[in-house]
């Protein structure tokens, strides 16, 4: 809309300028300061009048309230402020007050086309915060060293973000002095002679079994999917580092995972490991089928089946959380020769320890009646 104003007989005081600046802060304004309309000229003989010069584009200024107030004062200070007329064009619905970029503001009917174009002032709008740059993921496979190592897993793929952001990651250090000690239910194992396939995954030696092998704990039955090896052991119990561990990965009907960890210490040759090593593939992604009924997981379980229990994650990408961990306290033996053979393929395939973040660890110092021992 247009607001014609009566001639101002004295300069606008600062308070009124501030008020005008506040008016402009609600939208965009075109400000025009012009001399009063001159008296009608004396008639002259009919001669084609010269073309009036085109009005130049108004000056445009973006700024804060202080900037707008300053521009108003400047507009009124040119010439005699007592004879100035101030035109305000305010449009709260438009970011340009209804004016196309570079166009002069509308003129009042009393204005002469040769008057100065005035000043168009726009309120400064806050700049939008910059959008965070999308993380650049490395197009390399995960590994246990170098750019694909554990410290960089979350940077390799979006699905691996939990490896860094997760609060229930594995493995964790376990100290008996900081556990929930007491009686615990026995783990019920069901194992049968099974066949399967041994695969060199590029990260470990993995055995996928067929057959009805499972464990039951906390009222849930988890079926055995596969077992694999880490050298050295990822678990650290009472500050002790074991040379190797076997992880038996299970899953129940709802999809929750449970991992049974059997620690290995140097001693006599292990019969179950000897069977696996005999069929160990050497090339990455190579697989070797096992003879029928060769594997019986019960061969590797210790007699003392007391355990530590906590909720953690997979120790390899994507580091999925919500995994039930069951770590048998009593280690079983593996010979120096068996250790050496695996170490030649995988000198170190263990994830570093992760923060416990206040998670409780159950320490089954006693097994409920019916369990062993």
Write up what this structure looks like.
The protein is of the alpha+beta class and 373 residues long. The chain folds into 2 domains: 2-36 and 55-123, no CATH class; 170-367, Carbonic Anhydrase II, CATH 3.10.200. 13% of the residues lie in helices and 29% in strands. It is built from 5 helices and 21 strands. The strands form 3 sheets. Strands 7, 8, 9, 10, 11, 12, 15, 16, 17, 18, 19, 20 and 21 form a 13-stranded mixed sheet that branches. A hairpin with a 2-residue loop joins β11 and β12 (220-230). The longest helix is centred in the N-terminal third of the chain and has 13 residues, at 65-77. It starts with a strand and ends in a 6-residue tail after the last strand.
List the helices and strands and how they pair.
Layout: E1 2-3, H1 14-25, E2 28-34, E3 59-63, H2 65-77, E4 85-91, E5 119-123, H3 162-165, E6 173-174, E7 180-184, E8 188-190, E9 196-200, E10 205-209, E11 214-217, E12 220-230, E13 236-237, E14 240-241, E15 244-251, E16 257-266, H4 271-278, E17 287-289, E18 307-313, E19 321-328, E20 332-334, H5 336-345, E21 362-367
Parallel strand pairs: 3-5, 6-13, 7-21, 16-19, 16-20
Antiparallel strand pairs: 1-4, 2-4, 2-5, 8-11, 9-10, 9-17, 10-12, 11-12, 12-15, 13-14, 15-16, 18-19, 18-21
Helix pairs in contact: 1-2
In short:
With 373 residues, this protein is an alpha+beta fold.
Note poorly predicted spans: 1-12, 21-36, 90-97, 108-112
Mean pLDDT value: 81
Number of helices: 5
Question: Outline, from the CA principal axes?
Answer: elongated
CATH fold descriptor of the largest domain: Carbonic Anhydrase II
End-to-end gap: 92 Å
Number of structurally distinct domains:
2
Judged by helices, strands and strand pairing, the structural class is alpha+beta
């Amino acid at each position: 809309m247009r607001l014609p104003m009566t001639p101002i007989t004295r300069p606008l005081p600062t308070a009124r300028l501030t008020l005008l600046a506040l008016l402009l802060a609600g939208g965009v304004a075109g400000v025009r300061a012009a001399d009063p309309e001159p008296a009608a000229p004396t008639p002259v003989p009919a001669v084609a009048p010269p073309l009036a010069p085109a009005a130049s584009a108004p000056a445009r200024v973006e700024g804060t309230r202080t900037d707008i107030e300053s521009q108003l004062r400047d507009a009124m200070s040119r010439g005699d402020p007592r004879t100035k007329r101030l035109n305000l064009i305010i449009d709260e619905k438009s970011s340009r007050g209804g004016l196309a970029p570079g166009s002069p503001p509308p003129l009042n009917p009393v204005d002469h086309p040769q008057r100065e174009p005035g000043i168009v002032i726009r309120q400064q709008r806050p700049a939008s915060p910059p959008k965070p740059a999308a993380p650049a993921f490395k197009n390399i496979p995960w590994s246990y060293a170098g750019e694909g190592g554990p410290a960089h897993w979350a940077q390799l793929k979006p699905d691996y973000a939990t490896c860094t952001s997760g609060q229930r990651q594995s493995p964790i250090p376990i100290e008996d002095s900081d556990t929930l000690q007491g009686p615990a239910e026995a783990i019920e194992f069901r194992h049968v002679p099974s066949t399967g396939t041994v695969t060199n995954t590029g990260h470990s030696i993995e055995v996928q079994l067929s057959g009805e092998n499972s464990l039951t704990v906390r009222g849930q039955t988890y079926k055995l999917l596969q077992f694999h090896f880490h050298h050295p052991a990822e678990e650290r119990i009472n500050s002790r580092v074991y040379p190797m561990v076997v992880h038996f990965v299970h899953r129940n009907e709802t999809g929750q995972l449970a991992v049974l960890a059997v620690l290995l210490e140097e001693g006599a040759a292990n019969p179950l490991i000897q069977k696996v090593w005999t069929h160990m593939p050497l090339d990455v992604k190579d697989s070797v089928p096992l003879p029928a009924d060769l594997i019986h997981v019960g061969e590797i379980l210790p007699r003392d089946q007391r355990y530590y229990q906590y909720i953690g994650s997979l120790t390899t990408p994507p580091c999925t959380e919500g995994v039930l961990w069951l770590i048998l306290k009593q280690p079983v033996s593996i010979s120096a020769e068996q250790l050496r053979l695996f170490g030649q393929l995988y000198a170190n395939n263990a994830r570093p320890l992760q923060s416990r973040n206040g998670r409780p660890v159950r320490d089954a110092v006693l097994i409920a009646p019916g369990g062993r021992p």
